[in-house]
Write a structure and sequence with these properties.
The complex is a heterodimer of chains A (about 100) and B (about 375).
Chain A lengths: L12 H6 L5 H6 L2 H8 L3 H18 L10 H5 L4 H7 L9
Chain B lengths: L7 E4 L4 H11 L3 E4 L12 H13 E2 L2 E4 L6 E4 L2 E2 L1 E7 L6 H11 L5 E9 L9 H13 L8 E6 L8 E7 L9 E2 L5 E11 L4 H14 L6 E7 L10 E10 L4 E7 L6 H18 L8 H10 L4 E6 L4 H14 L4 E4 L10 E6 L12
Parallel strand pairs in B: 1-2, 7-8, 11-16, 12-13
Antiparallel strand pairs in B: 2-5, 3-6, 4-5, 8-10, 9-10, 12-14, 14-15, 16-18, 17-18
Helix pairs in contact in B: 1-3, 1-8, 5-6, 7-8
The chains are: A mainly alpha (about 100), B alpha+beta (about 375).
GO biological process, one term (chain B): endonucleolytic cleavage of tricistronic rRNA transcript (SSU-rRNA, 5.8S rRNA, LSU-rRNA)
Organism (chain B): Sanghuangporus baumii (Phellinus baumii)
Keywords (chain B): Nucleus, Ribosome biogenesis
Chain lengths: ~100, ~375
């Protein structure tokens, strides 16, 4: 499976989780662009890039299970047009 | 006693709870160093110390050593005993913080757990008692932990002063079932609990109204319950919140919640919860994002068979959990795209071979 996952939008989750030491926050936020960009860097440089991000993260992380949504994630739903594609996920929507 | 396992070392205060849970279940001692060692106020927080004390009550023979500065903890797990326990939670975290790890270990106790927790019942950091009752408990029922599973909300307590009380009852199992849950289905109903304590009960209705105005277009089967607690049962501080859950035709649950903030009208709180629910539904999978860890843990412990579950993208906490679970149990998951033909779908299938964990603490009948 992994070998064939060459498309940009396919993040190789197994490799990222089990055989890289990248921070979880990085992997989770990793849009395809970010991961591709990171892939080419040599490990030393990557290490220095990650460190400041980690210390910032630690100050506010409370080991909490509830998802924190940023305002723009939620306010985008005020746009009525976005609501329509969601209908297919409900039994009332068409296939 | 099985203390033969080698000592596992971690650093940092993050992911504290699931590491302790993994240690207790695996019987492997764990040492966590550098807990906020760079912080202005280093060491364990009161809620973490309180959680350790609670785990000491639930288990027998657990040795917990905290260094003088509080920046390092050593836990040598004993056996999970269960039984009847009461614990006062500090006001820095809600009872959800304590219930989440307890739900993971309670099924493997020697005696059924009857836990009374006092403190804050709903806050914006941890799952509220409403969500634990309506969403977390059904998630562990998937694994055959069913009988006598209950969470009673006796009193509600809003931050900052709390004053709430809940009772958690959990039966014990010998082994958990293997999960095979790959059909997300379609959302067939939406349920919700809206509560308001020490403020006008009308706030609760206003939240329901606002949530309905967005959700009604999707589905007619919406029932939002206004839960009113009065007098002594409503705790010491004013507050209100809306918890929502969407259930699919295959029983997949997605949930969201928003809690009152000073100066924000109830309509806005309701909309926050509603939009968060839509976001959660859009992320897909068979399991709610905040319950990924619980489900994955139970899959690891499952009988020696391949367990499969479809989920949305893992959260950062889940990613760290997957790594830690491999350290403790040597189990790694196979993670594959759920729909390889559909480039828009981000759903993943997590599969693993369960270790066939047997509840050794259970008294032999």
């Amino acid at each position: 499976f992994n070998r064939h996952a060459t498309r940009k939008n396919r993040i190789d989750w197994m490799k990222m989780i089990y055989s890289s030491d990248r921070l979880p926050e990085y992997i989770a936020s990793g849009s395809s662009v970010k991961t591709d960009e990171m892939e080419g860097k040599d490990p030393d440089e990557e290490f220095f890039r990650l460190k400041p991000a980690a210390t910032v993260e630690e100050d506010k992380d409370w080991d909490m299970s509830k998802e924190v949504y940023t305002d723009n994630v939620l306010t985008k739903w005020e746009n009525e047009e976005l609501l329509d594609p969601l209908r297919s996920l409900f039994i009332t929507g068409q296939q | 006693m099985t203390t033969s396992g080698s000592l596992l070392k971690f650093s940092g205060h993050l992911h504290f709870r699931h590491r302790i849970v993994l240690s207790i279940l695996s019987g492997k001692p764990v040492r966590i160093d550098r807990i906020r060692s760079e912080d202005k106020d280093p060491g364990l927080r009161d809620f973490e110390a309180s959680l350790l004390r609670l785990l000491e009550k639930v288990t027998n023979g657990t040795v917990i050593e905290i260094s003088y500065t509080g920046t390092s903890v050593l836990v040598k797990p004993g056996v999970v005993v269960g039984g009847s326990i009461t614990h006062d939670c500090p006001l820095s975290r809600s009872v959800g913080y304590f219930l989440e790890p307890l739900i993971m270990i309670a099924p493997f106790a020697k005696k059924p757990l009857n836990l009374t927790l006092r403190g804050i019942t709903t806050d914006d950091r941890d799952l509220s008692v409403d969500l634990i009752r309506t969403v977390t408990l059904p998630h562990i029922q998937l694994f055959g932990i069913d009988e006598g599973l209950e969470l009673r909300i006796k009193k509600r307590g809003a931050p900052p002063l709390g004053g709430g009380e809940v009772q958690f009852l959990c039966s014990i199992v010998k082994q958990v079932k293997t999960l095979d849950f790959v059909e997300p289905g379609k959302i067939k109903r939406i349920r919700g609990i809206s509560h308001a304590v020490r403020v006008s009960p009308q706030f609760s209705n206003r939240m329901i109204e606002a949530a309905r105005s967005v959700l009604n277009r999707f589905i007619p089967d919406i029932y939002l319950y206004s839960d009113v607690y009065k007098g002594e049962e409503s705790g010491k501080s004013p507050g209100y919140a809306l918890s929502l859950l969407a259930e699919s035709t295959t029983g997949a649950l997605h949930c969201s919640e928003a809690v009152s903030k000073p100066g924000v009208p109830p309509e806005d709180i309701a909309r926050q919860a509603t939009y968060a629910l839509l976001e959660e539904i859009k992320r897909g999978g068979c399991v709610d994002r905040s319950h990924q860890i619980l489900v994955l843990l139970m899959m690891v412990l499952g009988s020696e068979d391949i367990g499969r579950c479809r989920m949305g993208e893992p959260s950062p906490r889940t990613i760290q959990f997957l790594r830690d679970a491999r350290e403790f149990f040597g189990v790694s998951f196979k993670i594959a795209k759920a729909e390889s033909t559909n480039p828009d779908s981000t759903d993943l299938i997590f599969s693993c071979l369960g270790i066939g964990y047997v509840n050794a603490n259970r008294t032999l009948a």
